[in-house]
Amino acid sequence: MSSPDPETDTTPPTEEAHREDHVDPGEHLLVADDVVAGYLPEVNILNGCNAHLDTGELVGIIGPNGAGKSTLIKAMFGLVPVRSGRVLLDGEDITALPAHALVSHGLGYVPQNNNIFPSLTIQENLEMGIYIRPKDFRERFDIVSDLFPLLADRRAQKCGSLSGGERQVVAMGRALMTDPRVLFLDEPSAGLSPLMQDSVFESVARINRAGVSILMVEQNAAQCLEISDRAYVLDQGKDAYTGTGRELLHDPKVIELYLGTLARI
Predict the structure, then answer these.
(1) pTM higher than the cut 0.70
(2) Pairing label, strands 230-235, 238-244
(3) Choice between 17 and 8, residue whose per-residue pLDDT is larger
(4) Would you list the domain boundaries of the chain?
């Protein structure tokens, strides 16, 4: 998968990128409303951040290192304390719910690191994804392995022997075992070769086409924007710009300030 070069691709954006306007929480599947959050007392990483996800969307989150990208999805998934603001699912306030409770509400999360059990087989990893509903394993395994045949073809293989891209497929597959409506992905292409990055982005798009709404943090900004319906650019803990993936990919200000040479990769 290659990205358009903004110096040679003259396709104009339909409109300039902008900050997120105030949204009606009841109009969207998932909403982060003016969220302030952080890991240490009195040290905020997010400073009034807004984002929303609609049913069926694939929404990317990009921005410089330290902007709060991963913190945003962790806060929405109950892994980082939210000090003010709200997170809402179908208009219901889920801000105070822990991560394990959010799984039963239809949310799934794939962390950037340590996202598989390398000493276990592919099947055992997927079993861990649905350990609270073991009777549903066969049905969910058939559905998930239909998306990713690798999971069935090599189900007995230890995950420690898999490539980086294959491990990401297992991690995403395990998250899908609970049949989530929303999937949070934290830098799924991190540390992978360009070829494996292409494969992972195709896997993400395949999951989205299967009906799962996705909120994805990515450092590979150009490829993220290529497959995203919409995206947010975070800076200093706030949503600095938002627009469609194509708008942001071609917006001169976003390219200059945030994409830089990434836009040409």
Answers:
(1) yes
(2) antiparallel
(3) 17
(4) 116-179
